[in-house]
Design a protein that fits this description.
The complex is a heterodimer. Chain A is α+β, with helices and mostly antiparallel strands. Chain A is built from twelve helices and 13 strands. Chain A is globular. Chain B has two domains: 76 residues, Roll (Ubiquitin-like (UB roll)); 73 residues, [2Fe-2S]-binding domain (DNA polymerase, domain 1, Orthogonal Bundle), CATH 1.10.150. Chain B starts with a strand and ends in a 5-residue tail after the last helix. Classes of the chains: A alpha+beta, B alpha+beta. At the A-B interface, α5 of A face α1, β4 and α4 of B.
Amino acid sequence: MVKKCIATSLNEALLFLKDGEVTIVSGGTDVMVQRRNVAGELPLHDKNVLYLKNVKELYYIKEDGDGLHIGAETSMSDIIADKRVPKILRECLEEIASVNIRNSATLAGNIANASPAGDSIVIDNLLDAKLKLSSVRGSRFVDAKDFVIGVRKTILEKDELIEEIVFPRRDYNHLYWKKVGSRKADSIAKLSFAAAYKLNKNKIEKMRIVFGSVSIKPAQNKSLEDEFIGLSVDELKAKIPYFVDSYRQVISPIDDQRSTKKYREIVAMNLLREFLENIK
Amino acid sequence: MEKIKFNLNGKDVSIEVDPSSRLIDVLRLNYGLTGTKEGCGEGSCGACVVLMDGRSVNSCLLPMANVINHKIVTIEEFSKSKAYECIKEAFSSLGGSQCGFCTPGMIIASYALLKKNPHPSEEEIREHLSGNLCRCTGYEAIVSAVILASKKGEGLW
């Protein structure tokens, strides 16, 4: 018999999670599709279900010395409407699904869903976001880039949930995000590309490059990012062919119902090349 | 089964249902509110859109657990308002409705937009209604109808 818990406090939610395999429902916009039944019949849940939307203490956007904290139950629409949220994240969320869905959907849900085509996690990685994972055992912070480990697989333990997402302050000169899909709304990405750099005295001080939907998880390479550091703009431009060739090895696109391996590789590398050529 | 309390069309109600029941099923089967339609059943078409606390949401994706203590307004209640009259007039005069299946969701979503933004640009209308599909009109008439409603409905939203 599947047990269902409508939690009204974080503590109640964590206690329910303690008892084994649980499907966590926030906005429901992914789970309700995944568990869909015929019209008029209950969704097909095979595990216990925890509803988090009534946990009011998980609705917040607040700033402190660590950066910006977004509570797990805050809707995407509320995140988009808050000007304290990094613009690039708001722009990314605005390209997810439709207004109707974003009024229910959450950022934490988009991350936990761990789809290879997930959009927001690309930006979470770009901005060095951290996730606060909580259980009755306590809380731990992990880097968003280490959270997803496979197709719909994450490092979340059975008794844990995402309590909040933390965005540390960053001072990039330029941030770039592009999603390539087949229609403007309700589009699942064929691929996406996000990048950011900081220049100091004409030298690259920081570089972030993340590709979405071209691997089982967002593709990022720390050692390649480090190779940009210290390069002048001219030196960087001279090395563009090298970086494009190197990043081609970082991604592993596939053929699927949305696009082809070849298209994804070509467009991903064109976006990278364009981004690097425009650094000034 | 859980006792789910919420506000439906202006009245506080309480119903014993499984918390995973979809709002659309409860509206149609338990309350007989069949103005809300089910098209795709997966959040792509918007035929099931209702207002939750004044915002447009897909009722096919909402488990009843998520509706607790919220205000739900369906097309049946909304159609008693002056705002509805204005949007309806605009849709009917410009051909914004043909077979009518998408229309309840389209009207609710249009109202949610006008409430937030009384003078939307064409681009903003297209963006806001992008989660509402219509297979008859080709959208031009719908977009024109929302522009007309925004002009005629000053102060109604």
